[in-house]
Design brief:
Belongs to the ROK (NagC/XylR) family. The protein is an alpha/beta fold and 409 residues long. It is 42% helix and 19% strand. The chain is globular. It binds zinc ion (ZN).
């Protein structure tokens, strides 16, 4: 069942005519959501429905409270037309960004504005009933604190690491204890529809809708955090593959004589270049007496995690930067394979390591220059995300709206 706007739940009549009306309303709402305020004439042109019918549908949607009269627009000769837009407060979307060691929650209005955001640090992802209970409790607490009526929530968008089958709402790597799959479990508990996808793909949707990938057709979005995720925008669309598992870039073979990966294979990219490995190497070096700011952090009792390593890199710690450089050499090598295959116009580095900006970009670019065919790679722009820690949350909003505004069942 498709997620519906509040007004859609009230439509009555013969099934076929309800469906037709629903589609007509949706075409209008979709146009206004993606393009902003528009006059009746502009809507007519975009949705290809007759002028009197559009006028009457817009009237209905105003009656439901879904649209607002946004005042007078620019004249193109003659009387200046009224502009209509979506009422941002008609409904809200909850964004849930599940990370390995933290949780971000947000509420968006229908103008994509984040009206609330909270970060719960040190919230470790575990495949347990306790984690699910704690997650639900955090979401419920946010709902009651905000005081927005429950039926005003359109849907919940979830971003989670690991293998995800978005179509069936299943998370295979994490939280598989959830009965009937994670999406259905949360949907039943919260009484709201739930849209679920892998974090890197959600971040790619965020970049496409609100970040550096706007107006781009072929973009690779990397999530460089504890692991390596990849979301691919190909020909303007998110590429998910047959089962939704596309983008397991972290598990391509780089070193056949390398280390065992947590996926069970040997020498995956992720065993050479990921936040987890960076933290592990740093910890080992501290034990061996390596001079670094991180040794000081350690002595002061600070937890040595990716957050701390990023802080040290930003502070110019030579050892931490050296470690990052080594990692980027492998990353660049892996990226070159993707660039040769897919010829993207842009590669966006996101995730925790994107906070280091130029310090991560330069060595990746250097490695790409070394290994790529220059004619192909010179056309590929390499940038850091500017949505940073917000990209997954923004992506949950983009994903929910994409699902809600889709016209096919
Ligand atoms: Zn692996």
């Amino acid at each position: 069942m498709r997620t519906q706007f509040l007004y859609e739940k009230n439509l009555t009549g013969v099934a076929n005519s309800v469906k037709r009306k629903q589609e007509q309303y949706l075409k209008i709402v979709r146009h206004l959501y993606y393009n902003g305020a528009a006059s009746i004439a502009e809507i007519v042109k975009a949705v290809k429905i007759s002028q009197p019918l559009v006028a009457s549908l817009v009237d209905d949607l105003m009656g439901y409270g879904m649209l607002l009269d946004n005042g007078i627009g620019e004249s193109i000769g003659g009387r200046r037309p009224n502009l209509f837009c979506i009422n941002p407060e008609y409904q809200y979307v909850i964004g849930v960004d599940i990370n390995l060691h933290s949780l971000n929650l947000a509420v968006f209005d229908l103008s994509n504005k984040q009206i609330h955001r909270e970060e719960i640090k040190y919230f470790d992802l575990e495949n347990s009933e306790e984690y699910l209970t704690a997650l639900l409790e955090k979401i419920e607490r946010m709902i009651s604190r905000l005081g927005i009526a429950r039926e005003k929530y359109l849907s919940v968008g979830i971003s989670i690491p690991g293998l995800v089958d978005a179509r069936h709402g299943l998370s295979h790597t994490h939280l598989s204890v959830a009965e009937n799959g994670l999406a259905q479990y949360l949907s039943e508990k919260l009484g709201m529809s739930v849209q679920l996808d892998n974090d890197a793909r959600i971040m790619a949707l965020g970049e496409k809708a609100f970040g550096k990938a706007i107006d781009k057709e072929n973009v690779l979005c990397l999530n460089l955090s504890n692991g390596i995720g990849l979301g691919m925008i190909l020909n303007g669309e998110l590429h998910s593959g047959k089962n939704g598992f596309a983008g397991e870039f972290g598990h391509i073979l780089i070193d056949p004589k390398g280390e065992l990966c947590h996926c069970g294979k040997i020498g995956c990219l992720e065993t050479l270049t990921s936040g987890k490995i960076l933290v592990r190497n740093v910890k080992k070096a501290i034990e061996n007496g390596q001079p670094t700011i991180l040794a000081q952090y350690h002595e002061e009792g600070k937890k040595i995690d990716l957050r701390a390593v990023v802080e040290a890199i930003q502070a110019g710690d030579q050892f931490a930067i050296d470690q990052l450089n080594q990692m980027c050499e492998y990353l660049g090598k892996g990226l070159v394979t993707l660039i040769h295959l897919l010829n993207p116009e842009m590669v966006i580095i996101g995730g925790k390591l994107a906070h280091t900006g130029k310090i991560v970009l330069d060595p990746v670019a250097m490695s790409m220059n070394k290994y790529a065919m220059s004619r192909i790679s010179s056309e590929t722009e390499l940038v850091c995300s500017d949505l940073l820690d917000n990209s997954a949350l923004m992506g949950t909003m983009a994903n929910v709206m994409k699902c809600v505004l889709s016209l096919d069942e």
